[in-house]
Write a structure and sequence with these properties.
heterodimer; A: elongated; B: alpha+beta; 2 domains; 3-stranded antiparallel β-sheet; about 10% strand
Chain lengths: ~100, ~160
């Protein structure tokens, strides 16, 4: 069980690191948001799943599952709100002509 | 003020809270009440949500997220950074609020595509490169989300 937990957490860390690199490498706010969605829809989820496996079926397990569900519900909303604000204030992706 | 949302939020507080002494429990009740009081009640959806299909939908969506997650990771780690960002207008047959929320959220959750703007029948989506774009335009997500909201008689 511990090894499964370690495996899940390492996979999560991989996505967190790659996502952070992506935020640094991508050119504008739109593409950076893609890197960000990598960190929360995969990175955070794998790390939390690893913690849940490590914890076993206790009350903390339930808490972690609730946090996982909340992440899946809320993070897309945050990304969307950020990009919509950027779009409405006139930003356009680099390389695209204003239509 | 509706009592059911307050109870639901209070239960959420109890689950996430680590301390059950008087002050924290009272704080939970007050917080739940304030949250419900501040937020206006959402308009009732015209479509019924099928929880049964949602059980099948979530693992399917996670599989998609995982697949495109590896794809975007590959893009990020590629020294040439072969991205081709583009805004596209995505036409959908879905109209009701509930359907649009689930569709928009699913698109944003999937790495490689993000919903930028939503209107009934049309979404503006930002795609990071051509394969992500192709995956979305195939319309498979549309069908799946539509199936989560079975048609009621009066919608026909």
């Amino acid at each position: 069980m511990t090894w499964l937990a370690i495996f899940l957490i390492v996979v999560g860390l991989f996505f967190l690191v790659v996502g952070s690199i992506g935020i640094l490498r991508f050119p504008d706010v739109f593409s950076r948001a893609h890197a960000l969605s990598l960190t929360d829809s995969l990175g955070a989820v794998f790390v939390l799943a690893g913690l849940a496996v490590y914890e076993g079926f206790t009350f903390n397990f339930l808490r972690i599952v609730v946090v996982l569900l909340l992440i899946y519900l809320m993070n897309p909303v945050i990304s969307h709100a950020t990009l919509r604000a950027a779009y409405r204030s006139g930003l356009r992706p680099t390389g695209e002509k204003d239509k | 003020m509706k009592i059911f949302p307050v109870i639901a939020l209070f239960v959420l507080w109890l689950v996430l809270s680590a301390s059950y002494d008087l002050i924290h429990v009272v704080m939970g009740i007050v917080t739940a009440a304030i949250v419900v009081w501040i937020n206006p009640t959402a308009a009732p959806s015209t479509r019924k949500f099928s929880w049964l299909s949602a059980i099948g939908y979530m693992p399917w969506l996670f599989g998609r997220v995982l697949k495109s997650g590896f794809h975007v990771s590959k893009l990020i780690l590629d020294p040439a950074l072969p991205i081709k960002p583009e805004l596209l207008h995505y036409k959908t047959n879905l109209r009701s609020n509930g359907e649009l929320v689930v569709l928009g959220n699913s698109i944003t959750l999937t790495p490689g595509t993000i919903t930028v703007e939503v209107a009934p029948g049309e979404l503006i989506v930002h795609a990071i490169d051509a394969p992500s774009q192709k995956d979305l335009v195939s319309g498979v997500l549309d069908d799946k989300v539509g199936r989560l909201f079975p048609m009621k008689e009066r919608d026909k």
